[in-house]
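Job type: complex structure
Entries:
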Amino acid sequence: MATYYSEEHEWITVEGDVATLGITQHAADQLGEVVFVEQREAGEEFEKGGEIGVIESVKAASEIYAPLDGEVVEVNEALADNPGALNESPEGDAWIYKIKISDASQLEDLMDLDGYKALIG
Amino acid sequence: MTDAPKRTPLYDLHVELGGKMVDFAGWEMPVQYPMGIMGEHKQCREKAALFDVSHMGQVILCGENVGEKLETLCPQAYATLKEGKARYGFFTNEEGGIMDDLIVSNAGDHYFVVVNAALRHQDIPHMQTNLDGVEVTEIFDRALVAVQGPKAEDVVGELCPAARELKFMETTLAEIGGVECRISRLGYTGEDGYEISIPETDAIRVSKLFLAHDDCEPAGLGARDSLRLEAGLCLYGNDIDQSTSPIEASLSWAIQKRRKEEGGFPGADRIQKELAEGAAKKLVGIKPEGRAPARQGVEIQNENGDTLGAITSGSFGPTVGGPVAMGYVAADQSAAGTKVNLIIRGKAQPAEIVALPFVTQNYKR
């Protein structure tokens, strides 16, 4: 099990060919209080860099961009009723998707925790 | 414009209180404090919140018959505005659009006018050019602080008993913390409260006196926006602009009867015609059924898929507990209860036209 980070402030924890994807605590703090999450449905495929959802805070909407190619295999339905969980545990219970990774070599483009910490300063 | 954003007399206090500073209309202002927009919003609805609104333009008008002269620029009855009273209004242009909205107070030996931050550069020359024989002086050495909420009377009244005696839309001079302030019982949150003009050298000290009250916390522009939206109050640049008429904006309540009948203000032809016949579009409240906020620019369609108009302000309403919005729709389809669809990111989301405000206004009349 390994966790990777994207420049778009997402984390991906990989177990075999399935991964869990969410946003980082830093991203959640920057967004402010989350009031709505628009998620894709299970079975939808996506490409690296594509928009795979929207997180709305009181003030503004922010897109979630796919950090690699893949397919949604499970959606965290709990976020629909409790979007505020994204502020409380964005790197824990408030994951956004379980995904199937199409091309594991794309993980090499992502950062490890030290790299991400350096990015956010 | 590449000028660095300006700072209000309360800037150091915002930083001390942990305010998240953003550039708003050329001013470095706190969008929120550590409490967060939701908490600050609820603080204002339930207790009291202090807002820095010093970025707005404070203007003194001196001369003979200032009220009558203001009536040549505004469709409000300012000639009959009694001493100690304040009245919401707007400058209209020759086409009947709204140039800016403002508050005018009759302060006895002068008139006191507050205009939007972004339009100071327009409004002050507008008054200087068109108010013959009136001395128009912009005030740069006073802060403007709003204390709003059901506990505002206690917060301000404990320091200044005269504040308790004011009713909604009344204004007076009174001492707070040993310094003379102009204190007006009004605001833009839908709650009871005050706007207080304070000499800049005392602004932080007096603000801290308010904040020392257990029921008063600082709130930023984020909460100010969600509060005014829930209260159904227009934001210039979003909900009203040079092209929208007061009738379209559902602001005919702000034009007094004599002015409606007599006219004599810029754009009176259009405004009187729309008063008689109605306008083609109307600003209404929109309540999305789901949780997705509908932001400015979102298209409004009827159930047949015809475009009715667009959202002009939309956010999450912390007191409502869901998304709230305002927008323009075709007047013949603007009745409360009408089902509409909002096209959010390409998908139709059901919503309903509702009467404004979303949250009952709580003024001390």
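Summary: Chain A touches chain B through 14 residues (CB under 8 Å). The first strand of chain A starts at residue 2 and ends at 5.
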